[in-house]
C-alpha cells in the first residue's frame, strides 16, 4: 500500500461533506475501497420486455437455424463467435458490445407456462399462475451482493398511468415486490430516501441534484485526481443526464395538459411510455454509478396481459401484434423488430454509460452483467421450450460472455439446460452457489436440472 493511497483515503474520510453527503457517500466509499486495493463490486442488471422474444432476433445474420417452430432440435452445444457477425436488426444497437456479449438460445422454462406472461415464473423459474411462491432471482442476487439500497425495481407499466407492477418480482414467499412505474416516484423514493433530517427538507425531486450537492461536489473534485476524479465526473454526468430527463417529462406533461381540451381525452389519449422508460434507464444508471445499488430490475410491461403501449413509436396496441395484426401500415413482425430495437437501444445506452467509468483494471461494465429476456419467453403465447436470453458484461471476470452465440441442447436432450440453471449460474458467479433454483420441470425426468451452466462460468 503506497503512502499516496493512504493519504488519499485519509483525505476522503475527512474532507467534510455537507447537505449532499448522503448522496455522495456511496460513490466516495467505492473510491476509497479501490484505493485500498479492494475488488470492485459486482452488479447485475435484469431487463425484461413483455410479449416474447423471437429467437430469430438473437440469432446472428447468416447462422443457420437449429430449431423448428421455435423448438430447438440440436442434441449438443453449438457455439459460434459473434465478434465479426452482423446482428439481427432488432438488436443491432448492441453491436458495439459484441465482444462482451453472449446470445443464449436453448434454455427452457416450461414450469412457468401460462397463457401469456410467465409472471413470477420468468424470474422465479416456478409456476407462472400460482402467485408469488418464493424469492425471484433478482432478490436472490441482491441478498448476495447487497448495496446501500439492496434492490431497485423500476420500469413502465401496461400504460403510462400505472404506478406499480406487482406481477414479476418476489422478495420472499407470498411477498410480491412492487416495480415502480412512475419516474417521479422512482426518483424521489430512490434518491430522496438517502437523505434524512435536515437533508430531507433540503431535497426537492424537481431540483437539480447537482445544485443540491454543489458544495460537496467542489470539495470532492478538489481532492480527487486521475481515475478517481474520472469516476466522480462520470457520476456527476449521470445526474446531469437524469436531471435533463426529468425536465423533459415535466415539459411534456405541461404540453399534454395544455392541448388535452382541444384534442379531446376520449378521442386521443397521449402516451409517453417510451419517455417513461428512457427516464427509468437514466435513473437506474445513476443508481448504479452512484453506488446506491448493485442490483437493478428494469421492466417494460409484463405480467398477465400487461404488454404496454407505444403509440408514439407507431405501436399503440401490443396485444394485437402478438396475434399478427398490422399497425400503422407495418406488419406485426416489423412492429416487434422496431420495439426490440428501441429497447436494445436503451440497453446499449446503459452499457455505454457503465463502460465509460474506469473501475479497477477495467470499467463498471466489466464488473456488471446485464441480463435481457422476456417475461413471456419466446413469443406472445409462449410454449417455453425456448427462452432466449442476452447477456452483456463479464461480472468481474466470473462469466464467459465474450462474443459468444450459444445454442444449448434442445428440450428433452441429455445435456439440456433450463432457465433455473441460468439463475444457478448467476448465483455461483456472485459468490452464493446453489445447485437448485425454483421448481424442476416434471417432464424432464431424464435430464439433470441441477447446477450452473458450466460453459458460462469462467
Explain this structure to me?
The protein has 458 residues and is an alpha/beta fold. The protein is built from 13 helices and 14 strands. A hairpin with a 2-residue loop joins β10 (358-359) and β11 (362-363). The protein is globular. This is DUF1552 domain-containing protein. InterPro entries: DUF1552, TAT_signal. It holds the Pfam family HXXSHH.
**Cα shape:** globular
Name the CATH architecture.
Answer: 3-Layer(aba) Sandwich
User: What structural class results from the helix and strand content?
Assistant: alpha/beta
Number of domains: 1
In whole angstroms, how far apart are the ends? 29 Å
CATH topology: Alkaline Phosphatase, subunit A
Low-confidence parts, pLDDT < 50 over ≥5 residues?
Answer: 1-20, 193-206, 252-271
Which H/E pattern describes the elements?
A: HHEEEEEHHEEEHHHHHHEHHEEEEEH
Q: What does the largest sheet look like?
A: 8 strands, mixed
Average residue pLDDT: 83
Strand content: 5-15%
Tally of strands: 14
The radius of gyration computed from the alpha-carbon positions, rounded to a whole number of angstroms, is 22 Å
Strand order of the largest sheet: 4-14-5-13-12-1-9-6
Q: What is the tally of helical segments? A: 13
CATH class: Alpha Beta
> In oligomeric terms, what are we looking at?
single chain
Helix content: 25-40%
Amino acid at each position: 500500500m503506497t503512502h499516496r493511497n493512504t493519504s488519499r483515503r485519509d483525505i476522503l474520510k475527512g474532507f467534510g461533506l455537507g447537505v449532499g453527503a448522503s448522496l455522495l457517500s456511496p460513490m466516495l466509499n467505492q473510491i476509497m475501497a479501490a484505493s485500498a486495493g479492494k475488488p470492485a463490486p459486482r452488479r447485475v442488471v435484469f431487463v425484461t420486455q413483455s410479449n416474447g422474444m423471437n429467437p430469430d432476433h438473437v440469432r446472428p445474420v447468416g447462422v443457420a437455424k437449429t430449431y423448428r417452430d421455435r423448438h430447438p432440435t440440436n442434441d449438443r452445444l453449438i457455439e459460434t463467435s459473434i465478434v465479426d457477425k452482423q446482428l439481427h436488426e432488432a438488436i443491432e444497437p448492441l453491436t458495439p458490445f459484441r465482444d462482451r456479449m453472449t446470445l443464449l438460445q436453448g434454455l427452457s422454462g416450461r414450469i412457468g407456462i401460462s397463457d401469456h406472461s410467465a409472471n413470477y415464473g420468468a424470474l422465479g423459474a416456478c409456476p407462472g399462475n400460482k402467485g408469488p411462491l418464493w424469492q425471484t432471482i433478482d432478490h436472490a442476487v441482491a441478498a448476495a451482493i447487497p448495496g446501500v439500497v439492496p434492490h431497485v425495481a423500476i420500469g413502465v407499466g401496461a400504460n403510462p398511468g400505472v404506478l406499480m407492477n406487482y406481477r414479476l418480482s418476489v422478495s420472499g414467499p407470498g411477498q410480491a415486490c412492487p416495480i415502480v412505474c412512475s419516474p417521479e416516484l422512482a426518483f424521489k423514493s430512490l434518491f430522496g430516501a438517502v437523505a434524512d433530517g435536515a437533508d430531507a427538507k433540503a431535497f426537492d425531486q424537481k431540483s437539480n441534484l447537482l445544485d443540491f450537492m454543489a458544495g460537496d461536489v467542489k470539495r470532492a473534485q478538489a481532492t480527487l485526481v486521475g481515475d478517481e476524479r474520472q469516476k466522480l465526473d462520470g457520476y456527476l454526468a449521470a445526474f446531469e443526464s437524469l436531471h435533463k430527463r426529468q425536465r423533459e417529462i415535466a415539459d411534456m406533461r405541461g404540453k399534454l395538459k395544455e392541448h388535452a381540451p382541444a384534442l379531446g381525452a376520449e378521442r386521443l389519449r397521449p402516451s409517453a411510455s417510451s419517455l417513461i422508460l428512457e427516464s427509468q434507464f437514466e435513473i437506474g444508471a445513476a443508481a448504479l454509478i452512484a453506488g446506491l445499488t448493485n442490483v437493478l430490475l428494469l421492466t417494460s410491461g409484463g405480467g398477465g396481459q400487461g404488454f404496454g403501449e407505444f403509440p408514439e413509436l407507431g405501436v399503440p396496441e401490443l396485444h394485437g401484434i402478438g396475434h399478427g395484426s398490422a399497425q400503422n401500415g407495418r406488419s406485426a413482425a416489423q412492429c416487434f423488430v422496431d420495439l426490440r430495437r428501441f429497447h436494445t437501444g436503451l440497453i446499449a445506452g446503459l452499457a455505454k454509460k457503465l463502460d465509460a467509468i474506469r473501475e479497477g483494471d477495467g470499467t463498471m461494465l466489466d464488473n456488471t452483467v446485464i441480463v435481457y429476456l422476456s417475461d413471456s419467453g419466446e413469443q406472445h403465447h409462449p410454449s417455453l421450450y425456448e427462452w432466449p436470453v442476452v447477456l452483456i458484461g463479464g461480472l468481474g471476470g466470473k462469466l464467459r460472455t465474450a462474443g459468444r452465440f450459444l445454442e444449448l441442447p434442445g428440450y428433452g436432450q441429455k445435456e439440456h439446460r433450463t432457465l433455473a440453471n441460468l439463475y444457478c449460474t448467476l448465483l455461483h458467479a456472485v459468490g452464493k452457489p446453489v445447485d437448485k433454483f425454483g421448481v424442476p420441470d416434471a417432464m424432464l425426468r431424464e435430464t439433470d436440472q441441477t447446477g450452473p451452466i458450466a460453459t458460462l462460468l469462467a
